[in-house]
Design brief:
The structure is a single chain. This protein is an alpha+beta fold. Strands 1, 2, 5, 7, 11 and 12 form a 6-stranded mixed sheet that branches. A 6-stranded mixed sheet has the order 16-17-20-21-23-22. It is globular. The protein starts with a helix and ends in an 11-residue tail after the last strand.
Length: 542
């Protein structure tokens, strides 16, 4: 509604100056004013004065006013889940309105972020996504949250795709119902979110008064979750939450694929003009000595499309954003979802960009079978924790079914025998040249280690007794992934069947015990596991 009113006023020839300072308010903490807090309408950014007051002149087209919470403060929660850092704008642009904000002091010398992504709550009666979420994911989140809360504040970041646009209307389940479901389940807060491609409304189309499909498709998300981009300060970190999905929803080539959908639900990766301009202004507000961290749904780095180095539709835009961060801060650190894999991504085109691709909380949209929630890289479904203490970051991974698990080890003698004799797997291997053809496999006594927690700069060692084996990082399809219940379409695409953290070595004996060790950049032992062989191949996740 606000967007249509603003458009009409512009068409009528009214200028921004006619509205003067039409958004005002005050920021306080325990009754006292807080000076220097950044306040934004998604276009402009101002700071509060010594009395905690701010005033904005806004066309209100983004529909919100929000604060960038200063370090050593937090905000109250809305109904126990969402942080109260924003207000919907309720009046037309020509009408002034006032919105105050409250801050709560908080010791942030050490804090933890729990990252979840691609939760994909969709109310599917066949897959039973809510049942699986309540049985596995939710208890895991609550358990890890309680443990981390004993060591300082905990915030939760949802990196997009809380819902699933394809079946909003078939299952009568949109983004607002996903939010309400988390509240009902007791999902802990504060929950900060970014928007995923599946969080858009597939019924949205362009209209004469609202020609921007992306804006129209975002409306349910805005109503349910708040702004699609914003920032906050926690401890020594300035966090920027971005919407890097531009929803296109182009018309169908043929008949609609699902009830209620108006288009193909397609999109491109990038930032719209308002968000890009706001980002540059926000970076100018970063206090000296702060670390800058970015969250978005779609990864900035990815192996596909090959040679491009980024998923951004316009490589020039990615180059510019990368340059913006590097020129000001010397690096760019990002946390993203979307890929349904666990990967500390790297690319020589952007050597100072570190992009942690967080695995899907749903595994692969709850598709890989009972008790078998696997990501596209065959990582166990779970949540990532990051403990921040000054400039130090310590990561953890907490799987739903097996706790703190770093890897899965395969005795390839038994794994290949299983894959060759399973008719379904054999059929899949013939469908794509990207899938590793284990029918033609000639290795003997090999060990595969899928180490989804592996980070660039770390070393993987494999020992047969005291004998050190030669270890290679390989591109191959994880054996367990081939044997799971993924939709058949997933096996046709290289990006779905190849991971970047699979390591191989060859032993002398088929019956020796193998020790796998992971060392950091300084040679410190981080993790060690033993595999007694022969080890049977099975369809569970161990």
């Amino acid at each position: 509604m606000i967007h249509r009113i603003v458009t009409a006023l512009f068409l009528a020839g009214l200028s921004l100056s006619a509205w003067a300072q039409n958004i005002t308010g005050r920021v306080t903490s325990e009754g006292r004013p807080v000076e220097g807090v950044c306040v934004s309408d998604g276009v402009s950014i101002v700071r509060t004065d010594a009395d905690g007051r701010y005033a904005l002149r806004s066309d209100k087209r983004q529909g919100f006013v929000f604060i960038s919470t200063p370090a050593w403060y937090t905000v109250p929660l809305k109904d126990g889940l969402l942080p109260d850092f924003y207000r919907p704008l309720t009046e037309p642009a020509g009408v002034a309105e006032t919105h105050d904000f409250q801050l709560i002091p908080q010791n942030q010398s050490c804090y933890t972020v729990l990252f979840a992504s691609d939760i994909h709550i969709k109310n599917d009666p066949v897959l039973g996504d809510k049942r699986l979420f309540e049985a596995y994911a939710l208890p895991n989140v609550k358990r890890v949250h309680a443990r981390c809360a004993a060591d300082g504040p905990v915030v939760l970041f949802n990196l997009g795709d809380l819902a699933h646009d394809k079946v909003w209307y078939r299952f009568d389940w949109n983004i607002a119902k996903s939010r309400d479901y988390l509240r009902t389940c007791g999902y802990p807060g504060p929950l900060y979110s970014v928007m995923g491609n599946h969080d858009n409304d597939g019924a949205a189309v362009a209209t004469p008064f609202a020609p921007d499909v992306d804006y129209n498709a975002e409306r349910p998300y805005r109503d349910a979750m708040g702004p699609t981009y914003y920032s906050m300060n926690i401890g020594k970190d300035h966090w920027i939450m971005l919407d890097d999905v531009i929803y296109l929803n182009n018309p169908f080539d043929g008949a609609p694929t699902d009830p209620g959908l108006a288009g193909r639900r397609d999109y491109r990766i990038g930032l719209n003009a308002d968000e890009r301009a706001w980002l540059e202004k926000d970076l100018e507000t970063v206090p000296e000595g702060m670390n800058v961290r970015v969250c978005a749904h779609a990864p900035f780095l990815f192996e596909w499309p090959k040679e491009k180095g980024t998923q951004f539709a316009d490589s020039g835009e990615m180059d510019a954003i990368y340059g913006l961060f590097v020129s000001r801060f010397g690096k760019m650190t990002a946390y993203t979802g979307h890929s349904h894999r666990f990967q500390f991504a790297e690319n020589p085109r952007y050597p100072l960009l570190h992009d942690l691709m967080v695995p899907a909380t749903s595994g692969n949209v709850w598709n890989t079978g009972e008790n078998q929630m696997l990501g596209i890289d065959a990582s166990d479904a779970g949540i990532v924790s990051a403990r921040f203490e000054g400039d130090k970051v310590t990561y953890g991974y907490h799987t739903h079914a097996y706790g703190e698990k770093w890897m899965r080890l395969y005795d390839m003698n038994t794994a290949v025998e299983y894959l060759r004799n399973d008719e379904r797997v054999a059929k899949r291997m013939t469908r794509s040249s990207h899938i590793t053809d284990y029918a033609a496999y000639t290795g003997k006594n090999e060990i595969y280690a899928n180490i989804w927690f592996w980070q660039p700069g770390w070393t993987v060692e494999m020992l047969e007794g005291s004998r050190r084996l030669k270890v290679e990082r390989i591109d191959a399809t994880d054996p367990l992934l081939l044997a799971t219940r993924n939709p058949e379409s997933y096996y046709k695409h290289e990006r779905y069947v190849v991971n970047k953290h699979l390591f191989a070595a060859t032993a002398r004996s088929p019956r020796s015990t193998i020790t796998v060790r992971i060392l950091d950049e300084d040679g410190n032992l981080l993790h060690s596991e033993k595999m007694v062989r022969p080890k049977a191949f099975s369809l569970d996740m161990e």
